[in-house]
């Protein structure tokens, strides 16, 4: 064996060892982490620089390093699955290396890059499929595909660059020593890249982990804020027997109307939340007015009509910091709270909007709110029968209420049992 060939074998030995040590873990499920290291990078480098014997040498050396590292758990079941995974990766890599190596001859550096990219990508996909087969109990690769693609591009760029540099280096007068020096240069470059690869990816994983923890904390705060607001709205009702459960019933009717009209599930969720919070602004109304028995005076009614604006301002102050709800979704909820007392003829409050000026969700909520108000007892009147309340809605369609929402409510009255199932499903979500 010449010094040139020996230098290649000797230089790859510490490289494959460092490649094994340079590893990261991807979470594949609740209990299993998938170990990814630099073996594929070194194996493919061996194929480009050496020959089949060098590739077999690198595979055997890596497998031996793995066995030594797992010597405390040397059982057939423990060794078989990883060995099968390594063998499948090396086999597929060799096949696609042979199939794509011609690209380098025709397209130079670009062809080399394309060959390495295709080979590494196919090997990574194969590894994923084989691992799924070997661990059939694991269902998901959480973020693994995206991170694996990032690694593929990084390794492809580096390996193609090193190969191109190796081909461009002059041989000199002593070809053998020049080859050895060239190999040392490439070895140092590859070792430096592997160390950099480990450090950069580890830092990225730490960043992703920290970001995930922050997002989880933010989500918990979002849920807590929504629960606090809902609790505020419900606390108002528990102090008054006449309005107890009003917000939940309005949310129920709003969801049923929207469902009957064909709105999608994400819209139903917003309507449900808007219904629960539609009267949250009554927190700012004096108790002497809010719980007064009998009809309100004109001045008291003027104060009462401010509750939509109070509620909208309150929600904007809280929802400004919520990341679980998009800005468009927030605006839809604000619209329900602010405009659910507007009328189609422009005689509602607080702004006297009419027809299409009123947001669709608020038009739906106006029907739901009015129906529950009419069918509930008040201090100044008895509850209407549902048939009477529906007749009132029908008579007010086009002037006070949005006709499509009224028509949906009338249809609901004919199929209440089936639509109640929709509400139960929404409440469970």
Automatic annotation (TrEMBL):
Residue intervals of the HD-GYP domain: 221-425
InterPro entries in the cross-refs: Cyclic_di-GMP/3'3'-cGAMP_PDE, HD/PDEase_dom, HD_domain, HD_GYP_dom
TM spans (from-to): 45-66, 78-97, 109-131
Entry keyword annotation includes Transmembrane: yes
Record key words, sorted: Membrane, Transmembrane, Transmembrane helix
Domain HD residues, every copy: 243-374
PANTHER family: CYCLIC DI-GMP PHOSPHODIESTERASE TM_0186-RELATED
Protein name: HD domain-containing protein
Lineage of the organism: Bacteria, Bacillati, Bacillota, Bacilli, Bacillales
């Amino acid at each position: 064996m010449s010094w040139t060939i020996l230098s290649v074998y000797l230089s790859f030995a510490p490289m494959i060892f460092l490649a094994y040590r340079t590893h990261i873990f991807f979470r594949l499920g609740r209990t299993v982490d998938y170990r990814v290291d630099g073996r594929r990078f070194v194996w493919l480098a061996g194929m480009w620089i050496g020959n089949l014997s060098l590739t077999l040498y690198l595979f055997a050396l890596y497998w031996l390093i793995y066995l030594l590292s797992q010597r405390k758990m040397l059982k057939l079941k423990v060794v078989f699955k990883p060995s099968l995974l390594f063998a499948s990766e090396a086999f597929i890599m060799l096949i696609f290396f042979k199939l794509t190596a011609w690209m380098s001859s025709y397209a130079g550096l670009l062809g080399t890059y394309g060959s390495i990219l295709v080979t590494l990508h196919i090997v990574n996909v194969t590894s994923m499929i084989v691992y799924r087969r070997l661990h059939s109990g694991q269902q998901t690769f959480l973020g693994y595909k995206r991170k694996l693609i990032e690694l593929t591009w990084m390794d492809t760029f580096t390996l193609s660059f090193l190969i191109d540099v190796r081909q461009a280096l002059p041989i000199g007068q002593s070809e053998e020593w020049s080859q050895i020096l060239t190999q040392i240069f490439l070895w140092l470059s590859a070792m430096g890249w592997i160390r950099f690869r480990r450090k950069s990816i580890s830092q990225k994983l730490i960043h992703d982990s920290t970001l995930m923890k922050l997002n989880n904390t933010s989500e918990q705060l979002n849920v807590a804020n929504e629960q606090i607001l809902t609790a505020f709205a419900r606390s108002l009702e528990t102090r008054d027997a006449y309005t107890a459960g009003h917000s939940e019933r309005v949310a129920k009717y709003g969801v049923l109307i929207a469902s009957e009209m064909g709105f999608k599930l994400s819209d139903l969720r917003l309507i449900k939340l808007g219904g629960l919070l539609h009267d949250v602004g009554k927190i700012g109304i004096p108790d002497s007015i809010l719980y007064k028995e009998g009809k309100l005076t004109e001045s008291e009614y003027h104060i009462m009509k401010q509750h939509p604006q109070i509620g909208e301002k309150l929600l904007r102050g809280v929802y400004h910091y919520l990341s679980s709800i998009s800005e468009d979704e927030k605006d839809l909820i604000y619209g329900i709270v602010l405009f659910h007392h507007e009328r189609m003829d422009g005689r509602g409050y607080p702004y006297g909007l009419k027809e299409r000026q009123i947001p669709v969700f608020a038009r739906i909520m106006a029907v739901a709110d009015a129906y529950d108000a009419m069918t509930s007892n008040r201090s100044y009147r008895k509850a209407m029968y549902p048939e009477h309340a529906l007749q009132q809605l029908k008579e007010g369609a086009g002037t006070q209420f949005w006709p499509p929402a009224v028509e949906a409510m009338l249809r609901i009255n004919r199929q209440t049992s089936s639509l109640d199932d929709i509400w139960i499903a929404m409440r469970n979500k």
